[in-house]
Amino acid sequence: MPTIKEGLTEPISKFDDIYNVKHFIATLEGVVRIVGRLPEDLRNVNHTSVELPHKITKAEIDNKIRPIFVKSSVIVLNKFLLSMKDVKDERDPEIEAIRCLVQYKALQFQPQIEKLGNRLNNRMKEAAQSLGGKYVAVDYRSTDKACGQRTDNVFTMPKGCLSPLDLGLLLQSHGFARETAIYLTQTRLDESFDPLLKLYPIVITKEYSMPFNEENQFLYSGMTQFELAIDFYICSHSDVLVPIHSSTFYTALAGERIKQGFTHMLVPRLLRIAREAPEATSLTLGVPRIVTKRLHPAYSCLCEQGMSKALALVPSSPTSR
């Protein structure tokens, strides 16, 4: 089974801390052999770590990975992440089908995370409905706060970052009403978020909305993966998603929303105001090209032909179904 790690200083999470192991194994039965741990005779063998792009071809596996595997016996596939930069024109149908099967069928959060995510999602819907509107999930964390300066609605953002005040002004400029219910992936709010709260008083975070016992379990576990799993669930079910930065989290999240038919996503765009002052830009929100141009891999995976190829890999036994 895979292990999960977020950052260099965090402890490794077990796969079953986050995902439903039984569902994962059952979905891939007959396609990929999965065991819980290495056979005893291989446990003391030195492991060789190999970094892989998400879109890897059979030729690359044969030329780069297989020789290492033959020599080492045990390899660890490290940093196997989905990135739009890895998308290639030439795709192997079998590898693509397996990838689709894993990404959109086999990976399912474990029941406790789904239960908590569903509860928080319902709270957000209730908050929005009481105000007669929908709720917006904004993927924004404290690391995004070291920002450029704003003068008369002109943004200078050399690092592409956004302050809480500018986040509020961005939402305001797109027409979101003051009463809009906002879920913020930032775990907890400090005084730097006061300017945002003046513009949008209904900002809800995990810390605010979780029951105390689950708050202690998830928010103070020292494992960011728990928090990311909750954020992923809520952001994939919100009426609107506003991701502040492009990242592997956003790419995976966009795929899940496309799978569910929730394609209402708005991404920040910097527009140059004048040619003579290229550093002066105006920030707007727009529909991402991965939706308008159908560039996200989810579209090819989830089309009738793509999913048929994926499901064709699975034997028609009762257990695999």
Automatic annotation (TrEMBL):
Record-level GO BP terms: fucose metabolic process
Molecular function as annotated in GO: glycosyltransferase activity
Record protein name field: O-fucosyltransferase family protein
Keywords of the record: Carbohydrate metabolism, Fucose metabolism, Glycosyltransferase, Transferase
Family: Belongs to the glycosyltransferase GT106 family.
Top-rank taxon: Eukaryota
Pfam families per record: O-FucT
Keyword Transferase: yes
Iron-sulfur found in the keyword field: no
